[in-house]
Design brief:
This protein has about 60 residues and is mainly alpha-helical. It has helices at about 5-20, 25-40, 45-55, 55-60. Helix content is about 80%, strand content about 0%. It is flat and about 35 Å long.
């Protein structure tokens, strides 16, 4: 993994933790989508994962 990609992913991961704590789940979903796009997933798959991760109920079920 190149330095730029690692840096971008680190920044997005940090943003996800902050957004979760602030209960800003729609913005969290957007950040998660960006991570999956950076990892090479197509737009549709990235958006699906982003919505799942950004779903407040998903966090509750996972114990976050």
């Amino acid at each position: 993994m190149n330095h730029t990609l690692a840096s971008t992913l680190g920044e997005l991961q940090t943003k996800i933790y902050w957004l979760h704590d602030a209960e800003k789940f729609a913005e969290l979903a957007e950040a998660a989508t960006k991570i999956y796009i950076q990892l090479g997933y197509d737009q549709q798959k990235a958006e699906n994962v982003g919505r799942l991760i950004g779903n407040e109920e998903s966090f509750i079920k996972l114990g976050f």
